[in-house]
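Sequence only, no structure available. Ideas?
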Amino acid sequence: MASLSFLLGMVPGTEKVEAADDQLRSDFHAYKEFEQSGELNHFLELEKEVTSSNFSLRKKKILKEKYKSSEAFRKEERYNQLLKRSKGDEKSPEIKELEDYIQSEEFIRQKQYLTMKPAERYETTDEYHKESEYQTLKKSEKVIWYFKTKKKYPFKELEKWDLTFEEKFKGSTLDTSKWMTRYYWGDQTMDSSFVLEDDKSFITDGKNVEFYDNKARIVTKAGRTEGLVWRTDQGFVLEDFDFTSGLISTAKSFRQKYGIFTAKIKMAGGSVAQSFWMVSETMLPHIDVARYENGKLHSNYFWGSGNSTHKSISKTGGARYADEYYIFTLEWSPNKLVWKINGKVFKTQTSGVPQEEMYINLSSNLKKNASESGLPSAMEIDWIRVYRLKS
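Reply:
I predicted one. Tokens follow.
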């Protein structure tokens, strides 16, 4: 049973949810990049020096310095005294030495520096330039943002997870290193596609998977073809079909036990059954992360074996979930399954939680009792991501 908030349609907007998630990931990348940058390292080194007691003492010394207390002043005074006492043009060695010093660039610079006003004198020093640079960096948007973000640190949950699988459908063809286009069981047992006896459309080998605008479309449409059907009383039977559909699966390339499985999908309104689902080597356990059928949105779980099978079915009015993109998510931990739509919890399951690796499937098909109106119909997938908890 879906929560009341879903029955009332109180679900956050997809665009807002995705924008917030994208911003968080972008901020995380920017934060880590700046954390390792030379700019931050330089700021921290400046901060360490400028805020130190040693720097403070140096600054005070510079501001308090006076020409009359300097060695330069003492030497100038001595030179003037000796000149007054000297007779004739004869100059003593000491006078010559002091005269050379007083006429030197070093003395001129020193006197000029020490006779300046304290504040003006400080502005000519390395200390002033370091302090000014520090204050400028401290007020910069990057540094302010970094330390504000560091204080709040909104990335704790994000840091717990590793991205293990991602598909953005950037190309114009399906990446066959990731995806197969038929049921795994048919591929392994007879190298062929097949459908079940309640299907009215046949799953073609990739012909019904299209691409546009960096999105994949699994299309169900009218079209005559021939294919195998599994019938419980007959086994595999070759039959004619008037409709075709499609499936993509990671059965041969990617499987995972536990984690976050999420996809941005637009289910088409109408009678076609469309599903984002997970399964393992056998038919059970089977998880419908999201299934749209007959105007209802389902999140289902089937488990067990032999004569001991169980099911947990949750559904809500599907009209509002058709023809618009939503982010459907399964969070799978050792003791719990949590289904979410746009980040909001839709369903929770704590019994029969699967303990084996499972793979991803996305499919659309027309069932025997479904209306044929509204075709062609397309389930659209923008992206798929899977995460695993670190350590």
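Residues 38-152 form one domain.
Hope that gets you unstuck.
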